[in-house]
Amino acid sequence: MIIQDMLKLNRKKRGYTQEQVAKQLFVSTQAVSKWENGQSMPSIDNLLALSDMYNLSLDELIQGSPFFKKPYVIGKKYTWKKGMRFMIGWFFVVSLISGFYYQSLWLWGMFVVGVTFLPLMMSDYWMIEQEGLTLKQYPKGLKESYRAHWTYITRSIPYSEITAVEIIYQPKIRMSPMDVGPDTFGLRVHLTDEQVSLPFKTDTAKFLPQFIQFLSRKGIMVIDERRIVEGMLTGKPIYEWLESQI
Length: 246
Known about the structure:
Layout: H1 2-13, H2 18-25, H3 29-37, H4 44-54, H5 58-63, E1 72-75, H6 80-97, H7 105-116, E2 125-128, E3 132-137, H8 142-147, E4 153-158, E5 162-170, E6 184-191, E7 195-199, H9 208-217, E8 221-223, H10 228-233, H11 238-244
Parallel strand pairs: 5-8
Antiparallel strand pairs: 1-2, 2-3, 3-4, 5-6, 6-7
Helix pairs in contact: 2-3, 6-7
């Protein structure tokens, strides 16, 4: 249960003893101990007081991460506004290279080339929704992209079809100091007859503890062999957490 871990973790982060917390909340030390051992739950009033004491929102205190509204997009969602920004930016770059000689066929040729490869910049993304997960996948390759007329393939996975969700984290082997590529981080969704891999981005991974609890409430088994969620609750980078467990 995340809440008992969060209560203990945040008390220790701020250097409080159980006696000090109990004194500020006008409860017994035994009550604080039971909260942190998962034997009982604080009342709403005490949760609000703990939220103020630890300077956290209730969602961060109870679920280990900020609240996110559904549908929640993970990945880069393509929009026409982003496409227009790209084309305007590309036109400016080509104009700058050509010395703003707008009658140059070379300028317009380079602009057309940039627009031609625009579909290849579209990336897959997925969404967390109330009733399931929705995957938005673009066809791979230049021919496939144009055959689909810049559209994506939509796939819906109801939570009722998911048997388990596995948290995957694999540090990347750095070949040089200039290798700054991201580690492999995401979910492996187990269905009855297949598995689907879903990437997590750095800016969305902070919602993982709350999402995992959401899945658990749906009756979905969560596999976290490397205790990634536990590490995230400490606030440490995941690779540091894994190294500390060796």
